[in-house]
Amino acid sequence: MFSQNPVFIPGPTNIPERLRRACDVPTLDHRSPAFARMLPPIFEGVRTVLKSRDAEIVVFPATGTAGWEAAITNTLSPGDRVLAARHGMFSHRWIELCRRHGVAVEVIERPWGEGAPADAFEAALAEDRGHAIKAVLVTHNETATGVTSDIAAVRRALDAAGHPALLMVDGVSSIASIDFRMDDWGVDCAVTGSQKGFMLPAGLAILAMSPKAMRAAATARLPRAYLDFADTHGALAKGSYPYTPPVGLFVGLREATEMLLDEGLENVFARHHRIAEGVRRAVAAWGLRLCAARPDLHSDTVSAIAVPAGFDANRIVAHAAEHYDTAFGTGLGDVAGRVFRIGHLGMMTDVMALSGLATAEMVMADVGLPVRLGSGVAAAQSYYRVGAPHLAKTA
Fold it and tell me: Between 3.40.50.150, 3.20.20.450, 3.40.640.10, 1.10.287.80, what CATH number should domain 17-261 receive?
């Protein structure tokens, strides 16, 4: 039996009924003119959400991890060097993916809870006078630690070093929820998926490629097959795909971009910030702290909450699932057992967030943490009452 409770994990996210219905379509021939007509507005909608004018949009029937792989294999060659910081589970996984493909990775280690180190990137790039580094990999929003990095600062680092490396950004848990400015930030490759900010089921890896990245793709020699840009573009020129795509998810993606643009992107970002700030105030009222090292790193899509030393945070996640049929996120990698995570992205409202906070309080009280019932909820309520749009207009 499926629970009627919302999930509070950083993805897959809750699916609006409008999108559930949009994905429920009869079988459509993916080589028909009807499918061909469907694709251009979908890609244009994604481009608009990314705040880009001329990015090439590529969508694969896959998930975000495949998007990382497509970005690497379509733009790099065996033995190429890339620069990356390891400061969370997903930056770690992208580094390991590159190594499996024979790409040499220069890794800058940072504590988990810190963001991407623009200053260290600049220093490394300045030392690379022969421009052996072909790409800089950045995780915009690290869901393991609840940290959002400053992509504009990384772009300034590349420019200050006068370095031509591609800027590749993992935006899986940020795009369509946190402001993302592909053109303004000079991003060459942005990767996301359908199951987070776009509020759809998992199943689409979504990439946006700058003209510079597409030029790199013309000479890249890493092996690829299913995730080959050339094959996909060749088929799209005929209004089709080189294999069978999930038509229902494409219909859903069109509807999702319409929902986001109808709400207004700035309103979407403001809603996520407001909800996240309420969660952060609840955490403070509980007497706990976030994994993110500083307020300027706080993520508006997921909060990783540190538990007292010696306590296993997995107990909170397990108890919530067993006793309250509610899903919170576990800690990953270096912070496994030390944090639990509350996802607050996609289809999320103040009221939904309050239900998650109330459940988290019950769980923590049940497992013996010194949290007073109602303390975090009251802190979030006070903030939401002031920050809610309908009240702000009448204040």
Answer: 3.40.640.10
